[in-house]
Design a protein that fits this description.
Distance between the termini: 18 Å
Helix content: 40-55%
Number of strands: 10
Structural class: alpha/beta
CATH class: Alpha Beta
Largest sheet: 8 strands, parallel, barrel
Strand content: 15-25%
Number of domains: 1
Strand order of the largest sheet: 1-2-3-4-5-6-7-10
Bound molecules: zinc ion
Order of helices and strands: HEHEHEHEHEHEHHEEEHEHH
Shape: globular
Length: 276
């Protein structure tokens, strides 16, 4: 059963995971390592000709899983909310240009107003960009973030809240991105994954680990197996629910960014095979 043991067909890596690399390096080096899936962060597209990026992705037969990220809709300032809409419309154009079928939404929050108000503005924002996303055939995945980010990064902090919003918006183009880092602690996780999948809106699955202790709440994520998250168990819930998409490795880590990125990529592959 060797072939099963070395199956990387559902492995995707986020460009931010290998932050020191440019988009060109990510594409070439992932492909060389036998990794098919890539989620592209917008920072690596800055000042790039997107046609050339698309050609490169095609040349190396990479499967673009998602563009990361849109969102950040809420603000107490109306002008900022308007700016956010424009930026999300730009993200839709960028996704279409590089052949990404989905945009991950880090929905945003403004500490100057209530979480309920921020959630209202998130729903308004998504509804505003939805026609454009649909015209381009781009799906929108709401990624709930851990509650420690509720003050500034996302007013959607549980998969239950994400499911509520997706069901309210009620469009086949809007779904949920499940990230183990943000959701592992939630006693309702298995139930909400089933609820999400039953409505066909489980769009993405992100993996990494929660280091104990954690030295930085943004840039100290662990590789699968480093920390306390039972990633194989959560993956089994996701797959039992019918999800057949990629396992996307999304790790922000000063420690791993400091090491040789080729060696790191091999570590990622090993962790994916044995601890995911
Ligand atoms: Zn994620």
């Amino acid at each position: 059963m060797v072939s099963e043991l070395v199956d990387f067909s559902k492995l995707c890596v986020h460009t931010q995971t290998t932050k020191p690399w440019s988009i060109e390096e990510c594409v070439k080096n992932y492909a060389l390592a036998g990794i098919k899936g890539i989620s592209v962060w917008r920072n690596v597209l800055e000042n790039k000709n997107l046609k050339e990026v698309k050609q490169l992705l095609d040349e190396f037969e990479m499967d673009v899983v998602s563009l990361v990220r849109g969102g950040f809709f809420p603000s107490v300032d109306k002008k900022m909310r308007h700016k956010a809409i424009e930026d999300n419309l730009l993200a839709i154009e960028q996704a279409a240009a590089i052949g990404a079928p989905m945009i991950v939404l880090v929905c945003g929050a403004d500490g100057g107003q209530s979480l309920e108000k921020s959630r209202e503005q998130i729903a308004e924002g998504i509804v505003k960009i939805l026609p454009s996303a649909q015209r381009s055939g781009i799906k929108l995945a709401i990624e709930p973030l851990h509650p420690m980010y509720a003050g500034d990064r996302s007013a959607i902090n549980t998969i239950g809240q994400a499911n509520d919003m997706v069901e309210m918006i009620h469009s086949s183009s809007v779904g949920v991105a499940v990230d183990v880092y943000h959701l592992w602690w939630d006693p309702a996780l298995q139930f909400e994954i089933q609820r999400c999948a039953a409505h066909h809106h489980l769009f993405a699955f992100h993996v990494c680990d929660w280091n104990v202790p954690t030295s930085d709440f943004l840039n100290d994520r662990g590789l699968m197996g480093d920390g306390c998250i039972n990633v194989p168990e959560i993956r089994s819930w996701v797959e039992e629910s019918g999800f057949r998409g990629y396992n996307e490795v999304e790790i922000f880590s000063d420690k791993y960014w400091a090491m040789d990125q080729f060696e790191y990529l091999e570590k990622i592959k090993e962790a994916y095979l044995t601890r995911t």
